[in-house]
Amino acid sequence: MTFRWQEAIHQCHNKGQAFVVATILTTAGSTPRDGGSKMVVTEKDGYDSIGGGRLELLVVKRARELLAIGVQAQLVEHFPLAGKVQQCCGGSVSVLLEIFPQANLRIALFGAGHVGQALVSILAGCDARIDWIDSRKDMFPTLPPANAAIRVSDQPEEIAGQLSRDQIAVIVTHDHQLDYRLVRTLLDETEVAYIGLIGSKTKAERFRQRLIQDQMPESEMGRWRCPVGLDTVTGKLPMEVAVSIAAEVLALKPKQTSSSVSWKAIKKVLREP
């Protein structure tokens, strides 16, 4: 399916996908597209167009170099069409590249009740991508935050079993039996390193005994935590509980710049077209 750049940005946000918005800022002479033309570039795809030809190929190549760095930034590149672009138009263009890397924190949130809603309201302003899952469609807000993708499912365990290892899971549902099924599925079928479960210490011990009875290996037990949230943040109101959970979850956030990419390499890519 072909998207216009506006639709592509929306899709990238919903998928938590990194992308670059390329915008023609200024033009001189004969150019294939006017100023203001935009396209969206992802790791594998491009949406809309800034004129095609070698100009677009070079812009896409540059955008993907910047995506590989994974740092949010803005920069302007100048392209003389008769020079390095090798197009016969004879003009020149300046292109603004806006890099939006993938969120550092990817959360699968199970539960759209009061605590879930409060937690999403906090994380809406953070560098996080939220998959928000519940079977009750009417519990979700009409306009969720841009970084939250709503998923209505009568079988949330199936979604849990598909989570990737770079996601974390937070369980705040209204159903203890569902909570247990989610924890067991996540331990049994995924490599998710952090599984936070709302509840009491009594609930945690009951779940632990059930997992042992269900022959869950002890080596898997360290991946789930109940009660989820910082002990130092007290209070039982939904927003107070959500603040406690958010504080713990945000502490898991990795460094923005990967240790596998040196700062010298980042400066080279940002400075050299």
How would you characterize this protein structure?
Helix 3 (114-123) crosses helix 7. The chain has two domains: 5-102 and 262-271, no CATH class; 105-250, Rossmann fold, CATH 3.40.50.720. The model is unreliable at 255-260 (pLDDT under 50). It has a six-stranded parallel sheet, with helices on both faces. The chain has eight helices and eleven strands. It has 273 residues and is of the alpha/beta class. The radius of gyration is 23 Å and the shape is elongated.
Short description:
This protein is an alpha/beta fold and 273 residues long. The protein has helices at 5-15, 53-69, 114-123, 156-160, 176-189, 201-213, 238-250, 263-271; strands at 19-28, 38-41, 46-48, 73-80, 92-100, 105-110, 128-134, 148-152, 167-171, 195-197, 224-225.
Number of DSSP helices? 8
How big is the Rg? 23 Å
Tell me the name of the CATH homologous superfamily of the largest domain: NAD(P)-binding Rossmann-like Domain
Tally of structural domains: 2
Proportion of residues in extended strands: 15-25%
| Strand line-up of the largest beta sheet | 8-7-6-9-10-11
Q: Indicate the overall shape.
A: elongated
Largest sheet: 6 strands, parallel
Kindly state the percentage of residues in helix.
25-40%
Number of strands: 11
Q: What is the level 1 CATH name of the largest domain?
A: Alpha Beta
Which structural class matches the secondary elements? alpha/beta
The N- to C-terminal Cα distance equals 31 Å
Element order, helices and strands?
A: HEEEHEEEHEEHEHEHEHH
The CATH topology name of the largest domain reads Rossmann fold
In the CATH hierarchy, what is the architecture of the largest domain at level 2?
Answer: 3-Layer(aba) Sandwich
